[in-house]
Amino acid sequence: MTIQISGVRKSFKRRGHAPQDVLRGVDLTIRTGEFVSFIGHSGCGKSTLLNIVGGLVKADGGSVAVDGQVVSGPGPDRAMVFQNYSLLPWLSLLKNVRVAVQESRPDWKKARVDEMVERYLTAVSLWEHRNKRPGQVSGGMAQRAAVARAFAVAPRTLLLDEPFGALDALTRSRLQQQLVDLWDSESETETVLMVTHGLDEAILLADRIVVMANLPYPSVRTVIDVPIPRPRHRTTVVHHPAYDAIQKQLVDLLIADNDAERVGAGAG
Ligand SMILES: Nc1ncnc2c1ncn2[C@@H]1O[C@H](COP(=O)(O)OP(=O)(O)OP(=O)(O)O)[C@@H](O)[C@H]1O
């Protein structure tokens, strides 16, 4: 499904201050089947943009259209995964996934719900832990349950907001692989948008990396193609001839943005 982001603007009111512009005219087209990462300094509006695409936050201006339909709220075609799992702590992993599927897909028969819940809890190796509550499992397992929950509603687009940011490096790398495997599998999920702070994670996973700019002009700074063929593996991807150049470009852009923000803050 094509996601067309056109002139999206957003500002937030701040008590005792002028409203803060968080996004000033974002234009971006995301094609069906793409994996797009969003990177930029803290506070540059990455989560806000993802939430606008997810229909959780309303833009002040501009629009997001999915396959030509303007987004006016959340929908089962777009599932989100957040850094803090956002599982319901009083429900088992199984019930967390099942409740989400039942709410998102009220038209599905029980057999279809059960099949999707089992398929994705099994795919993330949690079926035998399905009766445990989130507080009884590790952070990595809880995040796997959140990933299973997102895939189980069969969204065509997955929106990931720093999903692995709170995990240790080893767990993070396993989950990155599981995510790509699920995306590559026969899942209905075609397109992935992922906010990340990890340059390596962005290069490993993305077809394109959207670098967001900070104040004084928060928007899309540039979009970088990652022409590294799939399947990619973290141990080999770093040896690809394009890897170092992309990493350097990202570092340079982020440093330049830091400097621009300092100048902007000084001028203001
Ligand atoms: N609901 C809100 N009310 C007021 N301000 C908000 C709200 N949501 C976000 N902001 C502000 O908007 C700016 C952008 O926030 P956002 O979370 O989109 O940034 P981000 O790039 O995702 O940051 P991070 O990388 O730290 O998660 C921040 O200054 C934040 O404080």
UniProtKB/TrEMBL annotation:
Residues 3-239 form the ABC transporter domain. Gene3D superfamilies: P-loop containing nucleotide triphosphate hydrolases. Its main location: membrane. It holds the Pfam family ABC_tran. Keywords: ATP-binding, Cell membrane, Membrane, Nucleotide-binding, Transport. It is found in: Cell membrane. SUPFAM superfamilies: P-loop containing nucleoside triphosphate hydrolases (SSF52540). Signal peptide: none annotated. InterPro entries: AAA+_ATPase, ABC_transporter-like_ATP-bd, ABC_transporter-like_CS, ABC_transporter_ATP-bind, P-loop_NTPase. It is a peripheral membrane protein. This is ABC transporter domain-containing protein.
